UniProtKB/TrEMBL annotation:
Gene3D superfamilies: 3.40.50.2020
Name the record gives this protein: Double zinc ribbon domain-containing protein
Xref: InterPro entries: ComF/GntX_DNA_util-trans (IPR051910), DZR_2 (IPR044005), PRTase-like (IPR029057), PRTase_dom (IPR000836)
Organism: Ferrovibrio xuzhouensis
Boundaries of every Phosphoribosyltransferase domain copy: 204-248
Pfam families membership: DZR_2, Pribosyltran
Top-rank taxon, per record: Bacteria
Double zinc ribbon domain residues: 22-80
Family listed: Belongs to the ComF/GntX family.
Length: 258
């Protein structure tokens, strides 16, 4: 995927262009509603509590927040049962309520202008991961889906995050070799089978992975299957380590209670 692949088609570009022009004329609005705020990419006082930010205590590996106080460094049951392919995963907020609305606005509502504000939230949540990485990569989107959606939301987040953190971003290193169905209703083993061979390193990226500490960026961490598939590919190619930073993460009812 080239950097230009993340740009929308002309119709989208026109709409976004008009929005950008309007943004210059209108006072900045909250990322979730139309309330006026101090600067672009901010949330208003009423919307801020609608987001459940991920904070300590959380699993040091997968970043699942615990509902009760636990000793520092306590690894969750799921990670003890099977260690994820990645080193650490962190997210800015839980994918529920206002967090879900915000992700859907960005992802399905053509609100690409939200990327810098959202990246700022990720930057705060992933400070330790960003400090340790020397390359940021977005989870790739298959060409067919990219054509329909017109932009890769993970690439927009990765680009904005790289700018904030002063770290290089490569949009063309990982590639989605075939489209995969939604993984939601499949079990762990089936998800791994579906993703097998679906993600690889592009010809342009070969040789650029060995010894690098990589931060993989995505919009939502659900089962972690896609992030893990990317991690396995990168580790096989000699990456020194791979962490994962997402905007939001799904927390199931049985999680977060240890
Ligand atoms: Zn608001
Ligand atoms: Zn965990």
């Amino acid at each position: 995927m080239r950097a230009s692949d993340t740009l929308p088609a002309w119709a989208g570009a026109l709409r976004l262009g008009l929005r950008s022009a309007a943004d210059l004329l209108l006072p900045p609005q909250c990322m979730l509603c139309s309330t006026e705020v101090d600067a672009p990419g901010r949330l208003c006082a009423a919307c801020w509590p609608r987001l459940r930010f991920v904070a300590e205590p959380c699993c040091p590996t997968c970043g699942t927040p615990y509902a009760i106080p636990v000793p520092a460094g306590l690894v969750c049951g799921a990670c003890l049962q099977e260690a994820p392919a990645y080193g650490r995963a962190r997210a800015a907020f839980v994918y529920a309520d206002g967090g879900r609305d915000l992700v859907l606005r960005f992802k399905r509502g053509d609100r690409t202008d939200l990327a810098p504000g959202l990246a700022r939230l990720m930057h705060a949540a992933g400070r330790a991961l960003l400090a340790d990485c020397d390359l940021i990569l977005p989870v790739p989107l298959h060409r067919g889906r990219l054509w329909r959606r017109r932009y890769n939301q993970s690439a927009l987040l990765a680009t904005a995050l790289g700018r904030l953190a002063g770290r290089p971003v490569r949009l063309d290193l990982l590639e989605r070799r075939r489209a995969t169905p939604s993984l939601g209703r499949h079990g762990r083993i089936e998800r791994r089978r579906i993703l097998s061979g679906a993600i690889g390193i592009s010809a342009a990226g070969r040789g650029d992975v060995r010894g690098r500490r990589i931060l993989l960026v995505d919009d939502v961490l659900t089962s972690g299957a896609t992030a893990s598939a990317c991690c396995r590919v990168l580790l096989r190619a000699g990456a020194a380590g791979v962490d994962v930073l997402t905007l939001a993460r799904v927390v199931r009812a049985e999680q977060g209670t240890i």
